[in-house]
Amino acid sequence: VADTRLIGLDWGTSSLRAYRVVAGGELGESRQLPAGILRVVADGGGADGFERCFEQACGDWAAAAPSSPILACGMIGSAQGWREAPYLDVPTNLDALGHALTAVQTRGGAALHIIPGLIDRRALPEVMRGEETQVMGALEHAPPAAADRWFGLPGTHSKWVRVRDRHIVQFHTFMTGEVFAALCGHTILGRTMQQPPAPDLHAFDRGVEVARSWTARTVLSTIFSTRTLHLVGALPAEAQADYLSGLLIGHEVAALEPLAVTGAVVLVGADELCRRYQRALSAFGHAPASIAPDVTPRGLWRIATAAGLVA
Amino acid sequence: VADTRLIGLDWGTSSLRAYRVVAGGELGESRQLPAGILRVVADGGGADGFERCFEQACGDWAAAAPSSPILACGMIGSAQGWREAPYLDVPTNLDALGHALTAVQTRGGAALHIIPGLIDRRALPEVMRGEETQVMGALEHAPPAAADRWFGLPGTHSKWVRVRDRHIVQFHTFMTGEVFAALCGHTILGRTMQQPPAPDLHAFDRGVEVARSWTARTVLSTIFSTRTLHLVGALPAEAQADYLSGLLIGHEVAALEPLAVTGAVVLVGADELCRRYQRALSAFGHAPASIAPDVTPRGLWRIATAAGLVA
Q1: Would the CB atoms of B179 and A248 count as touching at under 8 Å?
Q2: How many CB atoms lie under 10 A from the CB of residue B247?
Q3: DSSP string spanning A41-55?
Q4: Each residue of A208-232: pLDDT tens digit?
């Protein structure tokens, strides 16, 4: 591991991903630990707790290549993280992220640099931590002709990000993933659900179609059909979860219209989830969306380059 | 208790309410037990389980006045209940509910009559069990001049019911109460919430106002402001729950506009909750809504009268 040029960390709420990046920004190796900041805080928190997780994740890499810079993004820079990295206000020049790093001295002597999150205080406040790095890594996937480029980052808290001239100018959060989990796990909608042998994309498409045809209805109302369609024998227990998934993602995609999301969207996230969003976007008449893979180590490399941490 | 003319039951998912009704339909006495059908089913279910709960709730009333008819509404008539009472399709003549009762023979020899629920199969299916009885009991509260009368029944699953010429012609379910509980209990939004010393109606109104000013935004997105306003220091931990309550109820009330809910609405439900809906309706420019109290025993009495069970 002496060829390490950058140690990159994506340190979020529930997990810690470590990337060993080699010459040219290529990914040499990656690891994932269930050592998100919530776990660290629950275990007592403090600098000691973060030090231990850092050592566990990549102490060997840092020892073998002690001159490698260390760069982290995500909730590790929040008030509950290792060191608070103040937010940058949007619009934010993506190439300037590397000039606003916050450093923590690790016990081993190396500095760990934390990338700032972004905030939009102009209306309902919006915040992100980590997604700015993913967008940085996905920039080359955007169609170069479009003035505005939209990036969709589905997940627990989906983000939709508008980029113009290498600036993040606007973004919006949808709690779709977390709401889905809460509805399945803690409401009547989950009570009858059964795991299908394979994802039921037909049921997913039905949910999307309901969201598309009932745009005047709030999701607070349409979700009840997950139960009533089952009651009348029109939705099997094994199809209820995928139907609800389609319904929620459909409501999210429906809400992109007033945001004037146009052009071919670039999706970033887990592959199976991104493919669901591709289906939903297509059902709503959007241009085919592409999926940008492996964006986080690439984004970390680019920000490290802009910061002068790597040549 | 020899003056009992009707034993009425509102037997729902999580609780069982029993009413002893005396001459003229006046309420003599009421009781509430945590013996909803979910509990009965969890305890083994079956006719024996329902018999035991029935005995416990009002066996003494039935023994003292053995000629009193027994009439029940709610989930007790569902497939998981004591005996399935088939749904009536909307539009449904409220005065005909009494002619569609389903009888169960109790061990004591008396018949327990179950009021049918309603179903609307015309679009996304809608179902109700128990609310038809509450609407029957609230009819006199509706302004007699209006051709269409709207009844709002807020709760775990809010119902909005349109009545014309003593027929329920349309109704819609909003899972507002259950979604609120799931968001507070099982998502990041609840993590920082603290109980206020008293309900914070100012925070509630703020939430309503956000729903009103951002009607193009889905609730999947606006709810995240419960967190971000707190992060930027604009929403104290003690105000987060009432803010979220206002936001969700605001989204529900916003969705009444495409349903063409007009005229002075009649609200039925827990008093504190109904007063929140009054505030939200008023913020959206609706005519002042009234609250109809004690509707369930009155509705049971009227349906018993229509059925010929009481003189």
Answers
A1: no
A2: 26
A3: HHTT-HHHHHHHHHH
A4: 999 999 988 999 999 999 999 999 9
Whether A83 and A104 have beta carbons less than 8 Å apart is answered as yes
Cβ <8 Å between A186 and B185: yes
Asked if B302 and B137 count as a contact pair (C-beta separation under 8 A), the reply is yes
Burial of A5 (0-12, 13-18, 19+ CB in 10 A): buried
**Contact (CB, 8 A) for A249 and A176:** yes
Looking at every residue in chain A, the average pLDDT score rounds to 95
Q: Which helix (H) or strand (E) holds A132?
A: helix A131-138
In sequence order, the 6+-apart residues with CB closer than 8 A to the CB of A149 are A142, A143, A162, A163, A164, A263, A266
Residue of A177, A145, A166 lying closest to A249 (CA atoms):
A177
pLDDT range class, residue A45, cuts 50, 70, 90: confident
CA atoms of B100 and B298, how far apart (whole Å): 18
Report chain A residues whose CB lies below 8 A from the CB of B229: 124-125
Structure tokens at A280: 């939903």
pLDDT(A145) > 60: no
Q: How many Å is the Cα radius of gyration of chain A?
A: 21
pLDDT for the residue A51? 96
pLDDT confidence of residue A241: 98
* Backbone dihedral angles phi then psi of residue B68, each to the nearest 5 degrees: -70, 130
Confidence of residue A302 (pLDDT cuts 50, 70, 90): very high
Give the dihedral sign, CA A27/A131/B179/B122.
negative
Q: Please give the model's pTM, rounded to 2 decimal places.
A: 0.95
Amino acid at position B227, single letter: R
- Minimal Cβ distance to B251: which of A124, A172, A218: A218
Residue A197 CB coordination number (10 Å): 6
pLDDT at A143 over 80: no
pLDDT of residue B143: 65
**How far is residue B20's CA from residue B300's CA, in Å, rounded to a whole number?**
11
- The nearest CA of chain A is from the CA of B231 a distance in Å of 9
How many Å apart are CA B302 and CA B96, to the nearest integer?
Answer: 11
Chain-chain contact of A218 with B219 (C-beta, under 8 angstroms): yes
State the smallest CA–CA distance between residue B78 and chain A in angstroms. Answer: 10
Minimal Cβ distance to B175: which of A157, A220, A234? A220
What are the residue ranges in chain B where pLDDT is below 70?
143-146
Q: How far is B176 from chain A (nearest CA, A)?
A: 6
Q: What gap in Å lies between CA A263 and CA A168, rounded to an integer?
A: 16
Residue B89 belongs to what H/E stretch? strand B88-89
Q: Are B196 and B241 in contact (CB under 8 A)?
A: yes
Determine the residue type at A150: W
Question: Which residues are CB-neighbours of B40 under 8 A, at least 6 positions away?
Answer: B49, B50, B53
pLDDT at A182 over 60: yes
According to the model, what pLDDT value does residue A122 have?
92
Which chain B residues are within 8 Å of A181, Cβ to Cβ? 186
